[in-house]
Amino acid sequence: MEFFTGALPSLLPKLAALATGEYNLQKGLKGEIKFLHAELESVQGALEDISKVPTDQLPSGDKIWARSMRELSYDMEDSIDKFMMRCNKGGDADLDKQHKHGSKNAIGRCLDFLMQPMIRRKIATEIRGVKNHVIELHQLRMRYKIDSAPTSAIADVDPRLYAQSPETAELVGIDEARDELVNALTDRNDEVSMQQGKIVFIVGFGGLGKTTLANAVYGKIRGQFDYSAFIAVSQTPDMKNLFKSILYQLRKTESINQDILDEWQLISELKEFLQNKRSIIVIDDIWNISHWEMIKRALPDNHGGYRIITTSHILDIAKQVGGTYMMKPLSPSNSRILLCSRILGDKDQESYLDKDLAKVSDKVKKKCVGVPLAIITVPSLLASKGRYVIDWYKLYNSIGTGLENSLDRDNMRKILLLSYYDLPSHLKTCLLYLSIFPEDFKIEKGRLIWMWAAEGFIQCKRQGESLLELGESYFNELRNRSMIQLVNDEYCRVDDMVLDLICYISSEENFVTILNDTMDHVSPSNTVRRLSLHDCPSRIQDNISKKRIRSVVVFSSGNDPKLDLGSFRVLRVLDLQHCNLSNVHSLKYLGKLIHLRYLGLGLTRVKQLPEEIGNLRFLQTLDTSYSKIYKFPQTVFQLKHLRCLHIHVPEVPKGICNLTSLEVLTLMWICNSATIIEPGHLTELRVLKIELRRGCTDDLQKSLAESLVDCLQKLKKIQIVDIKALVDYEGPLDAWHAPRSLRKIKVRSNSWFSTRPDWMNPSHLQHLSILDVYMKELQQEDLEILGRLPALHDLCLSVEYKKLKICPGLVVGASSFPCLVRCQLGFFVPPVVFWHGAMPRLTDLMFTFSVCKMREITGSISGFELGLANLTSLRSIEVRFPYDSDSKEDKQEAMAVLRHEAEIHPNRPRIWRIF
Predict the structure, then answer these.
(1) CA-to-CA distance for 537 and 516, rounded, in angstroms?
(2) What is the maximum span of the chain, computed from C-alpha positions, in angstroms?
(3) Is-contact 429 451, C-beta < 8 A?
(4) Would I find Repeat among this entry's keywords (predicted)?
(5) The pLDDT value given to residue 102
């Protein structure tokens, strides 16, 4: 199902099934269904053409017609789903099995038999009504045809993007501004000034890079302060939570009970804490002067050595604060560098463009007038067009004169609309669904994909096609087009300006209804299809008609949403993460949500699921992670359509092997090896995450590990293996031979690999992108083989130093790890040395360091060099000192050596230590 085509993509197959299936319909109705199916196919084609035309260019009649057809398709699908649910052979019999007495079964069957004619009459009436409505709308609209535009094919993640982390893509041209602010905040020549509080306000239009600059300054000087915090402020912030978050970040090692404090007590607590302490705090994106006034009350009176960096797009707020830094657009030369990086993946490859393409790219650069967000967004469109001059010129001409004349919100919205309208229609829908999430929210990729699937946005067209893999390709394409930003491998976020755009479109087209403290009601005349509640009181729900709502997503700070589940008739998505469902009646009517596909109960304190959950025969996703459910009703394991299951129980429930459609399985807190082998029967499994419980006996540890390996050997389609094993057992995974499909492996336990297994090589694992393992022994040859893995972009490689059998003096040679972006090396003694040409795309390096062990091997550390200057893209260095034998003076000496290497590096990477 797509945004502009409504429910038609999922409705049409159901109509075809009604017309050809063995449903006992009224005489002549099948012919009318076939006519309706053909008519709606034409309507779908027309709606897809409309989706390619900017809304402001559509005739008002087409807008009205398209909206009417979308709404009609939703209602039609809801009716057919109800009918097919009742007529599905064995469906009601399954429900009857819940009754304990045979008499109840008999009565139920009799009632169902008597109800069948009534159901058939009702569906016949509704189908004929829809048919007549479609004909009427067709007659009102005199034409369908609109110039079509080509759609883009679904792609994997563009490999160039791994070379362009947010830092490499967005820090172009920022050095001068960063250094200016660093000097203003540190003032190293004035000791008195350093003891006084300072505030800097970064102001600029959305898209100019305020947050990026603040983060760059923060990273540069954070190590000079004892305490630090980085806080993002939304348009309607919860100030109590904001102050709690600041205190938590500042006082990570201290235990304070913040929940019992009100706002003013938190302000007092923060003010007292900052007194006479060297601290740096970033307050990102202030929207209202009243919010700043409250924050200001938490600051000591101009002494204490604190530094505050704030950002806002509102100049009036900054004027009242003082210390204003006005953001400037990028210079033409830096704009060119960023543009080439986005189009070609390399700032120095402009010569690869022929003369005509170089000319039009220069024109595009001028149109973007140095706005980084525009420069990042528009070239992504150019890259998706291939190297066709005519297509590039079409895009250039469609930009207009917006940003050239005025840097305002509406014109940036027009720039982003170009990217939006260039999306295939199915991706438009997936992008708009992101408007359901609050500002600055970290969105879990898996959660988002399964929500898309539940709504019908992901439609498998081939037998055996994976919903998860297709959903991931949608996600990757949105990332490739810069419409979403990766936080890490499992989370993304939406830029504020993109969120503003999709919320605007969603509101205009009645796609998502958002209710929060400032908007707590809906007009009774509005049809709500998707409802997002942002910390709202439960009373607002009385204003809403629930009978047509398909999604309810609640973002709560631990409150009970008090939803009347029985009143939601066609609900497909119910996400209550972080809500308080400890009340036993919270899920009383869950079994009535027979259309439900997605049920999110993670972190909800819910203690049990009702037996009636077995009624949810279409359920695809069940998430009860970190809940208090320790025993599952057996009816859960009758849910044959379940594709994704997250549970938190001491043992794998018996019967889980019946869920043969599962693609994703997360098992947490496992301590029973007898049932851990059951997931091995789930042959469609792509993702397996298991957390083994701590405190097991040695024999049980061995049994758990061996059972897990037996399970893995049977999973031939597995792509992601994530094991958190709080058990110390040597080499259990040595016997496993991973399939070629493996893309990610994380094993957080000591020495589960005794050494590099033979299958961990570039010819076998061509798609492995993340490797996070401990090994007991590692040789130079092993490191060289790992360095040739073609898709690896994240590496966390550790050895168990207590049982160390590592060859000293390991080196990373030229051309090794060509795609690696992040690297963490643990307990290597001495640290690995990097040669010229190694890890050309690495931006983040983390490693452990032992001064005592270094002295044992080399006699001194003063002349030792890691070769950090050879890591040409390096931006960040994190050093850990986990050894008790290292004194404070030892650590300071080591840091002095490492800082010297960082200072002579052309990128001047930031460096900090973790004790």
Answers:
(1) 9
(2) 94
(3) no
(4) yes
(5) 40
Tokens of 371: 């706005």
Look at phi and psi of residue 814 and say left if phi exceeds 0, alpha if psi is from -120 to 50, else beta. Answer: beta
Judge whether 336 and 365 are in contact, CB under 8 Å. Answer: yes
Give residues with Cβ within 8 angstroms of 117, minimum separation 6. Answer: none
Question: Phi and psi of 55, rounded to 5°?
Answer: -55, -40
pLDDT of 50 strictly over 80: no
Lowest-pLDDT range, 168-172, 196-200, 549-553, 903-907? 168-172
Integer Cα distance of 895 and 882 in angstroms: 14
Given this model, what pLDDT does residue 402 score?
A: 44
Nearest to 883 by CA among 911, 909, 856, 906: 856
| H helix or E strand, kind and range, residue 841 | none
Are 322 and 362 spatial neighbours (Cβ–Cβ below 8 Å)? Answer: no
What is d(CA 693, CA 387) in angstroms, rounded to the nearest whole number?
A: 54
The answer, yes or no, to whether residue 6 has pLDDT greater than 60, is yes
Cβ count within 10 A of residue 392: 23
Which candidate, 847, 834, 904, places its Cα nearest to that of 877?
847
pLDDT band at 139 (very low <50, low <70, confident <90, very high): low
User: Rounded CA gap, 248 and 244, in Å?
Assistant: 6
Count CA within 13 A, CB hemisphere, residue 230: 11
Phi, psi of 428 (to 5 degrees): -60, -45
How confident is the model over 329-341, as pLDDT tens digits?
788 888 878 877 7
- Provide mean pLDDT across the span 192-196: 61
Give the orientation angle of helix 425-433 with respect to helix 496-508, to 10 degrees.
100
- Is the pTM for the entire model greater than 0.90? no
pLDDT of residue 101: 40
More confident residue, 523 or 764: 764
What is the rounded CA–CA span in Å between residue 756 and residue 782?
Answer: 6
Continuous segment of H or E residues that includes residue 910:
strand 910-914
Domains detected in the chain: 8-140 (no CATH), 174-326 (3.40.50.300), 649-793 (3.80.10.10), 808-915 (no CATH)
Report how far residue 338's alpha carbon sits from residue 368's, in angstroms, rounded to the nearest whole number.
11
CA dihedral 746, 751, 756, 758 (to 10 degrees): -90
Q: Name 353's Cβ contacts closer than 8 Å, sequence gap at least 6.
A: 343, 344, 361, 387
* Residues 6 or more apart whose Cβ sits within 8 Å of residue 22: none
CB 763 within 8 A of CB 740: no
More confident residue, 375 or 448: 448
pLDDT, tens only, 486-497: 888 899 998 877
Provide the terminal-to-terminal Cα distance of the chain, rounded to the nearest Å. Answer: 51
- Which segments within 252-340 are labelled E, that is strand? 279-284, 306-312, 324-326
Crossing angle, helix 372-384 and helix 389-399, to 10 degrees? 150
Mean pLDDT of the chain: 79
What are the residues facing 491 on neighbouring strands? 444
pLDDT tens by residue, 297-333: 888 876 667 899 998 877 767 766 667 788 877 888 8
Provide the pairing of β-strand 491-493 with 485-486.
antiparallel
- List C-alpha distances in Å: 641 to 226, 388, 665: 53, 45, 14
* Alpha helices in 304-440, H assignment, sequence order: 315-321, 332-344, 355-368, 372-384, 389-399, 402-405, 409-422, 425-433
C-alpha to C-alpha distances, 750 to 63, 609, 656, 826, 827, nearest whole angstrom: 61, 36, 29, 12, 12
Helices then strands (H, E): number in the chain? 27, 27
Q: What are phi and psi of 231, to 5 degrees?
A: -125, 130
Strand partners, 444: 491
